UniProtKB/TrEMBL annotation:
Protein name: Uncharacterized protein
Organismal lineage: Eukaryota, Fungi, Dikarya, Basidiomycota, Agaricomycotina
Domain of life: Eukaryota
Amino acid sequence: MDSREGCTWFPITRIRPPEVIRELINTYDESLDPQAREWWYSQFLATVDAALSQYSAPSGVWYLDYLGVLPEYQRRGIAKALVLPLREQAKLEGWKFALTTQTLENVRFYESLGFRIGRTLVIPGSSIGDVTVYVMVNGFDDG
């Protein structure tokens, strides 16, 4: 794991958050009803993890996990200011990038930073219907 500029990147082989964040996830986990929890682990995470595992590189891949800006601070360039320096540093070190998002607004934002959609996943079976996840990549030469 490498943390710089208040943004944390996890190597693709360590998609799960570090232990300091695990407690927050456990709290979230406990708030889910059993059916939602089962879907989260057996469908959502399994599908996303499998898709991300297709993006690997000998030099390494950084996975952007949990980037969020409070609504009252959005559209001020904060997310861009967090992501671009890391992307540039990783590029200098020969790393590639992957992240997931669920909104087209975020897709457009990441595309403006040089990412592209690597895959679009539709994960069925949640209590709110199908969930679409966009795997965004940067630095891969696979079109």
